[in-house]
Write a structure and sequence with these properties.
By secondary structure, the chain is an alpha/beta fold. Helices cover about 40% and strands about 15% of the residues. The protein contains 14 helices and eleven strands. The strands form two sheets. The chain has a six-stranded parallel β-sheet, with helices on both faces. The radius of gyration is 22 Å and the shape is globular. The relative contact order is 0.12. InterPro entries: YkvP/CgeB_Glyco_trans-like (IPR055259). This is Glycosyltransferase. It holds the Pfam family Glyco_trans_1_2.
Amino acid sequence: MDKVVILFKGGVETQEYFSIEMSKTFQKHGYEIYWFDLVLSGLSAKQLCDFYKADKSKKFMAFTFNFNGIAGEDGLYDESFEGGSFWNETKIPVYNMVVDHPLYYHKYLPLRPENYMQISIDKNHIRYMKRFFPDVQLAPDDGFLVLGGTELNEKRDILSDKFLPVDKRDIDVIFTGNYTPVNSFDRFIAHLDSDYQEFYRGLVRKLIENPEMIVEDAAEEELKNQGIQFTDDELKQIMPNLMFVDLSVRFYFRAEVIARLADSGIKVHTFGAGWDMLECRHPENIITAGNVSSQECLDMISRSKISVNVMPWFKQGAHDRVFNSMLNGAVCVTDTSGYLKDNFIDGENIIFYNLENIDAAADKIKRLLTNHDELEHIAENAYKICAENHKWEMRTNKVIEWMNLTV
């Protein structure tokens, strides 16, 4: 093989799982996969250098998530390299898919390789980058690419059919993802004086009351309401403190949705850490499994009738929970985003609810659980659209297309 793509393992488990899924398609396109182990960064860097020097004639690319491998890691960043890093010396193109809001990664952007292209999973994140980091190179098409899904039974070696029928699914409602109590995020603003702390807490309240707003717009509007004049650069400087706001709002609504479902009498199986800390009137209706792997989440989704999603404040993007649910036969019940509304039809291949009326979601779920024919219809329609458009295979094909354009 004369094409090599460098992928990363040993970091966040979900991102490693995404990379493994993508590696299958890279290999179909004739790419050799080189795995860089982030746990053994120094040793892995030496091995990568040796591998690269052994055959520089190969076409090298790198693909990563959330700046893994391009954040100053030992062995990759050193003054002995021309340009201060392995990436700059070799000029290897690096594609970085940022799966959170860019405000989390300001400190890493100065370390980005010279031959760098950023991919965003939400169109609002692209708008953010163009405004505050106009010098950062985006991948083609502005680098917009939502997360993909994984079909557990893709090779039909688990079941003879696509997925279990509703009647054979032993879990009524599932939620896959962690929970952290909102007060745990106080550490992000604890170093600020009381006026600033109140400003950020006020933003949390504003977004809870106006869940269609995005974090940076809420901050800008509130500053203007207070008569504070600021430049884009000054606004940019406060953005990392909005981690507190983003996480607080995300987990507030995650807690609200699961608590309301449980308190309405629906038993919700949660797969993720922290759900034993959720306070509600009927905690007996929350069946907690604790932290599990991505593979285990897929296993449980494939046994579930309904998979609940709460978007992590991606108002113009999507989350892999949506596609994982659809590809494995569970009906996805989710709050909306512009992307989801553009690509799916409520009641036909997805069920939407509004964060301003969570109780209605409980009513919809209860009704669906009594109508297996409707569940089967929605699950089948959702599977078809996702199998054709929303697997990691399709996302990888797009990345390869971009790689071919930008070489």
